[in-house]
Design brief:
By secondary structure, the protein is of the alpha/beta class. It has a single domain, classed as Alpha/Beta hydrolase fold, catalytic domain (Rossmann fold, 3-Layer(aba) Sandwich), CATH 3.40.50.1820. It contains 13 helices and eight strands. The strands form two sheets. Strands 2-1-3-4-5-8 form a six-stranded parallel sheet, with helices on both faces. β1 (23-26), α2 (37-46) and β2 (52-54) form a beta-alpha-beta unit. α3 (67-83) packs across α4 (96-107). The radius of gyration is 19 Å and the shape is globular. The chain binds 2-acetamido-2-deoxy-beta-D-glucopyranose (4 copies). The site of one 2-acetamido-2-deoxy-beta-D-glucopyranose has 6 residues, from α3. One 2-acetamido-2-deoxy-beta-D-glucopyranose (NAG) is lined by residues 76, 79-80, 83, 108, 110.
Length: 285
Amino acid sequence: MALKIVFLGLVLFITPILCYKPVVLIHGVMTGSASMEMIKFRIEEQHPGTIVYNVNRFESWSSLETMWHQVLEIGMDIANISASHPEGINLIGYSQGGLIARGIVETFPNVSVSTFISLSSPQAGQYGAGFLHLVFPGLVKDTVYELFYSRVGQHTSVGNYWNDPYHQSLYETYSVYLPYINNHIKSAKSEDFKKNLLRLKRLVLIGGPDDNVITPWQSSQFGYYDANETIIEMKSQDIYMEDKIGLRTLDESGRLHVVTVPGVNHFSWHMNISIVDDYLLPYLD
Ligand SMILES: *[C@@H]1O[C@H](CO)[C@@H](O)[C@H](O)[C@H]1NC(C)=O
Ligand SMILES: *[C@@H]1O[C@H](CO)[C@@H](O)[C@H](O)[C@H]1NC(C)=O
Ligand SMILES: *[C@@H]1O[C@H](CO)[C@@H](O)[C@H](O)[C@H]1NC(C)=O
Ligand SMILES: *[C@@H]1O[C@H](CO)[C@@H](O)[C@H](O)[C@H]1NC(C)=O
């Protein structure tokens, strides 16, 4: 009897530690929630009781709808989820999903995220044939700016974060998403974007040199090309040095985790159990 009570006491004491705050998963471009099921399964298996929401909007071709449209629609869903979990949630976005997730964190003050994990997402943009050809096999990276940097080209998600280092003034003129959420272009929303991102308890940026799709791969950690395609790491970028969206503040307060994992191809991040065990679970709140 006494043993039973001790045991029960232990279980009650341990359960809150084993079980995380709810986790919301956002899938990548040209796929859907099914591609994120392994992560959901593994979290639930390792930490029973954790509620995992796997966003099933904008799957397959509709993942090409504009970034703002996806941010607003998925953001409304997550605001609802967040409202029923006032203790906060974890948010994990894979590939394009991580860039949608950041837009949501910056835009919705009523989405309360403790940990946000960006899993190989083009946070500083994309300039590479690998990614382009997933969606548009016929297009050429050197000239696709002519399409993307136009009003029509901005009707696709990929156009919204295409960041051509050789055509920066066109990028600034036409791109309606990335330069804004990066506070590269100041807007009426800039202060809110930063304030909202700074509410995070943890920002985890995961990427690696063998990704082969996110180009440059450092974009997953806010590094990017300069005008000559030389990589400038995050800490030497204006977005960090001038603390435009709060990255430096997050870093200086120990809340920014930059994680580099070699040996992982872009299509393996969300399929690899050791990535979940070693790089996702330890950061969940
Ligand atoms: C949010 O929740 C409310 C009330 O529970 C519901 O009426 C509404 O449709 C939900 N909205 C979304 C986007 O799920
Ligand atoms: C969250 O905020 C948005 C506007 O910022 C609002 O439209 C939405 O209804 C809110 N959702 C909840 C669940 O409070
Ligand atoms: C790019 O390279 C050219 C030739 O090497 C050089 O003249 C130019 O200053 C470089 N531009 C930048 C932005 O580094
Ligand atoms: C899985 O992830 C580990 C790192 O945790 C990496 O070393 C390994 O190469 C990955 N395997 C695949 C198939 O991507």
